Fold this sequence. Notes:
By secondary structure, the chain is an alpha/beta fold.
Amino acid sequence: MRDHVTSIDRVNYCAVIALAALSFMVLRKWISGGVCKSRVRLDGKTVVITGANTGIGKETARDMACRGARVVMACRDLTRAENAAEHIRRSTGNGNVVIRHLNLASLYSVQEFTKEFIATEERLDILINNAGVMMCPKWTTEDGFETQLAVNHLGHFLLTNLLLGMLKNSSPSRVVTVSSIAHVGGKIEVDDLFFDKRPYSPLVSYKQSKLANVLFSRELARRMKGTGVSSYCLHPGVIRTELSRHIESCYPMLKTLLSVPSMLLMKTPWQGAQTSIYCAVTEGLERKSGCYFSDCAEKDPAPEGKDDAVARRLWEESARLVGLNDRR
């Protein structure tokens, strides 16, 4: 009798293990999200990717190189960028992968990058605004801007505008901006973008910058209508990358507690790059210019991400802050 009970327990135990394994596989598949299935080639095309030396930026660069594009990796750390570029060259067989210095926290650096690019490159088919910082302390850039808004929005705003001439000349072309689901609940305080009048919160600042990405992409699409330049923004998913380094440095215990769950429940960089790649290469997406994507599908942004009046005010204030009007 005891042997019979033991046998039943073993069967039940195996069933529980099998169910747990199946549940985990289903959960991982759901977390991994969509995969870009386009096989479009990019031979003869030029792609610029900011922050391409690590995380989803590096995976996006690798995919663009696999498709035959000339890939310009615009990065702040040239040593790490060269290491990443060499790895991409070797793994894809595409030697047309180059690095250029770009520090999005510096308007001067953005200007110098665009000057060199325009002087040395013949075309620009895809610009992927990928780089970003997340929930850092209240740091101020050399231009006097709060760092999260400066890097995540203002640097990319100036970069894109200075390259619009090349994008138009290379049309049909695309601008892809990596935002986040964190834009939900965000608010653009046009009169206090840098938290000079209100208490600084790393999270509130991050949400503002990611909402700025959504509104910038939307307004860019409106302004570029009829030019052949399309604009898209996206949420890449929750990904285990270096982007969370500021949170982990402030809360080391949290890093330890989340290390195992994050490996199980977060996307890999390759999975996180899929929606950026989808927006960059999918055929027939031009009619979706100005839209927001997640998991390789169009999704509705939060209501605050569809406020065209705020989008226009943010564009005008951004242009003033970066001196864009002074250059025209």
